[in-house]
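Onboarding guide, step 5: your first structure request.
Type a short instruction followed by the sequence, for example:

Predict the 3D structure of this protein.
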Amino acid sequence: MISLSMVMQFLGGLGLFLYGVNTTSQGLQKIAANKLKNILESLTRRTWAATLFGIVMTVALQSSAATTVIVVEFVNSGLMTLTQALGIALGSIIGTSIVIQLISFPILDIALLFIFIGFIFLLILRTQWTKLVGQALIGFGCIFVGMAYLSGAFAPMRNSPQVSEFLSQFGLNPILGIFISVLLTALIQSSAAYLAILISLSSQGLLTIEAIVPLVLGAHIGGTITTLISSLGAERIDAKRLAIANSIFRIVPVLILFAFLPYFEKLVEWSAEDLPRQVANTHLFSAILMVITFLPLNRILAQVLVKLIPQRKEKDLELRTKYITKEALEVPTVALSQAGQEIHWLGHNILDNMLQILPRALSTGDARWISELEKAEQRVDWHYAQLHNFLKELFGGNMTRQQIVENHNLQLIAKELESIADCLVTMARLAQKIHIGKIFVARKEWVLLEELYLVVADNYLALLRLFDSKEPAIAIRINEAHSGIIEAYNRLQGDIVCRIQEDDNDKDWKENLSAGQNAIIELGNLFYKIGEHIASIVKVMS
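The system replies with C-alpha cells like these:
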C-alpha cells in the first residue's frame, strides 16, 4: 500500500537529486566560464578528440542538453563542423553513462562529507573561486542524499508481491518495457533522474535483470524525445540535424541489442553482482555500442543529414534572430557569445541597409529610399527588442561577475546601435521634407555635410572591424578619428554662422537662419550624435 510518507519521501528525494544535479552543473559552469570555449576549440580538430571532449564536458556540466547547446552554437558560428559536433554528441552519451556510474555507488557518507566541505568553501572561506567549488560540492552531495531518500521511499514495497509482479511484466514483455521507459523519460525530461529511480528500485530488489535491460534501453531513446520535439521549431538548421542524429545514435543500437537481448542480459549480469551496478552497466555497455557503431560513420552521417535537411532559404521580410536561441540561456558562456554575434550582425545590417542608403535619400528625397530606411529601422528595433529581452532573461540566471559585466556591456552596445538607426531614419525623413518643400540649400553646405558623412561612415566601418577583430589598436584609431568628426561638424556649423554674421553683425545668428540652413545644421547635429554613439560603444568595448 502506498502511503503519504512514501510519496513525500519519493518527491523529496527526486527534488534533492534534481537540485543537486542543477547546482553541480551551475557551479562547474561558472568555474569553467569563458575558458570552456577555448578548450573546445583546441580539442575538437579531430572526431575522436571531439568525442573525448563530449565525455568530459557532459560529466563536468552534468547535462547532455547543455553540451548539445554549446555544440550547436559552435557549428552555427563556423568554429566546428557538423562531423565534429556529432562526435561530441556521441561523447555526451558516454558522459551520461559515467554520471550514472557515479550515482550507482552507495557513497552517502562520503557525499555528506562533501556537503560539509562545500559549506566551508561557500560560507567560511568566501572567495569567488571557493564559493563556486563549494556550490559544486554541495550539489554533488545532494545528489546522493536524494538517491538515499528515493531508495528509502521504495523500501516498503520490497515485500509486496503485487509490485514485484507488476514490475516483472517489463522483463516478460521487453517491448512494453522499452515503450513505458521511453514515455516516462520523456515526461520527466531527464534521463539521469529516471535512471536514478531505476537504481533506487533495484537497490530494494524490485527489478530483475530481465526488466532492467529494456527499461534502460528505453531511457536512452526517451532522453532524446524532448530535444527532438523542441528542435522541430528551431531556427537553427544544425540544431535539427543534431537532434535527429542523437535519436539515430540511440535507436539503431537499441534495435541491434533487442535482437540479442538474452546474451546482452547475461553480459550485464556477469559484469556486476548487485542490481544498481547492473543498471549503470546496462547504460554504459549500450552507450559504448552506440559510439563503436557510429564513430566511424560520423562523416557519412553528417553528409546524409545535410542532404536530407538542407539549409532553408530565408524570406527577406521574415523577422527572426540570427544567432540567439532560448536554449543557450542554460549556458551563460554560450548565450553571451550568441548575443555578441547577434550585435555584430546588427551592426553590419545597419551599414548595409541604412548607412549606405542614406546618401541617396539625402540627395534625392525619393520616397522609395525613405521607405527602405524606415523598414530597416523597424527591423533594427525588432532585433534590439529581442536582444534586450534575451540579455534581461540571462541576467536573472546563474552568471559570474565577469559575465554580468559582459551582459551589461552588450546591452549598452545594442542600445547605442539602435540609437544610430534612429538617427539615420530621422535624417532621411528630414531630407524628404527638404526636397518636398523645395527648401533651398546652398551647394557648399551640401558639400560640407557630405564631408561630415564620410568621416562618420569611415569611423563606423572601423567600429565594425573592431567588432570582428577586437584589436585595441583599432579602438585607438577610432578615438583619434573622433576628433575628425568634431572638426568636420565645426566646419559645417562655422561656415553657416560666419556667413550670417557677415551679413548682419547686430542680430543673433540663430534668428537669421534660413529653413535650409536650419535643416543642414539639424542634419549635422544628427551626424555628430552618431559619432558620439560610436565613441560610446568603443568606450564600453575598451
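Each response can be followed by summary notes, for example: The two ends are 67 Å apart (CA to CA).
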